[in-house]
Amino acid sequence: MLGFFHILLFWTIGNTISYLTGNYISGNVLGMILLFCALRAGIVKAHRVRPAARFLLGSMGLFFVPFGVGLMVSYDLIAQHFWAILIASVVSTLLVLLSTGGIFQKLLHKQ
Amino acid sequence: MISNLLQSDMFLLTLTIGLYCGGVALYRRLHLAVLHPTLLAFVALIVFLKIFGIDYTHYREATRILDFLLGMSVVALGYLLYEQYERLRSEALPILVSVVVGSLVGILSVVYIARAMGADHVLLNSLAPKSVTVPIAIAISEPLGGITTITSVVVFLVGIFGSIVGPRLLRKCGIRNLMARGLALGSAAHGIGTARAVEMGAVEGAFSGLAMALMGIITALLVPLLEKSCY
Asked: Which of B210, B185, B188, B196 is nearest to B130 (CA)?
């Protein structure tokens, strides 16, 4: 439970900072960075967060399901531009996979 | 009576988790990449809601807690970063360069291809953040006047597609380094890719989580800029 508390605590702090800075970066991403910093600084002990983090990360796929079900209502909108959306998204996703992975591997070999 | 039960929040949430667990079990047994548990659960749920005439807003309310858990799991990625800190630190520059390039490629390619195929400006803004995790993608497209329902569905489908195709494509193209594979999955397929990467191993998981976080931040900074100057 302590792990959940820490995660929620840093999320709350992240949200507050995000709000104060005009929502430029979302609160949960800031929370992630803050949790990382707190662990590094030793303010939070890793073994206290581990069980909660493992649980959440292990079931991440589930948490996205409701967004996908949204296809039910946005189907008509998407159908109007079906091919543009499909081809652009597919090609772009493949390009990101290859460019990020490829460049990183190249830079790694150079060192 | 039955329809009351089927419409209850408790039932819809139980059904969602049950279908996902069923998907995980099936995926473990058959080991077919196409049988992604998230994909199975989402298709089965749409069929179910259509058959019983339950509307999406009601379903969304009933499963609100999953949004909450998603937010928590993004924060939990901070723990994964901590675990892999030494590795991350020694490769900080290559990581940053490759994710920035990935973000640029991701935004510009989706925007230019969609525009060439006749998409209007509103649609372009809805698609531009398609490689980043749902909560961040919506935070990017909404202020630019994008249609958030399109954004969230496209982001979801991109995540599924990337995590199904990604591992095999990377292997075929000779990208075998564990860190590179993690980064690629997290950059292209955000949280769904990261869920897959966590399954592949601790190194892949941490790098994917990091890539997803960086990608979210960098894309959030780049999209408003590129929107003004490039499309």
From this structure: B188
User: Which chain B residues touch A13 with a CB distance below 8 Å?
Assistant: none
The low-confidence residues of chain B, meaning pLDDT below 50, are none
Residue of A50, A81, A97 lying closest to B184 (CB–CB): A97
Range of the domain at A33: 1-63
The neighbour count for residue B90, using CB atoms within 10 Å, is: 11
Neighbours of B124 (CB within 10 A): 22
- State residue A30's pLDDT score: 87
Show residues of chain B in contact with A91, CB under 8 Å.
Answer: 109-110, 113
Instruction: Work out the average pLDDT over A28-47.
Output: 91
Better pLDDT: A87 or B84: A87
Question: What's the mean pLDDT when you consider all of chain A?
Answer: 90
In this complex, which of B17, B114, B181 lies closest to A84 when CB atoms are compared?
B114
pLDDT value at residue B32: 76
Residues A101 and A59 in one domain: no
One domain, residues A102 and A71: yes
Identify residue A63 by its one-letter amino acid code. Answer: F
Helix axes A71-80 and B148-172, enclosed angle (nearest 10): 80
Using CA atoms, how far apart are residues B222 and A29, in angstroms rounded to an integer?
16
What pLDDT is attached to residue B217? 83
pLDDT score, position A5: 95
CA nearest B219 in A: which residue?
A25
Is residue A106 located within the same domain as residue A82?
A: yes
Q: What are phi and psi of B210, to 5 degrees?
A: -65, -45
Contact B99, B187 (CB under 8 A): yes
User: Looking at the predicted structure, is the pLDDT value of residue A111 above 70?
Assistant: no
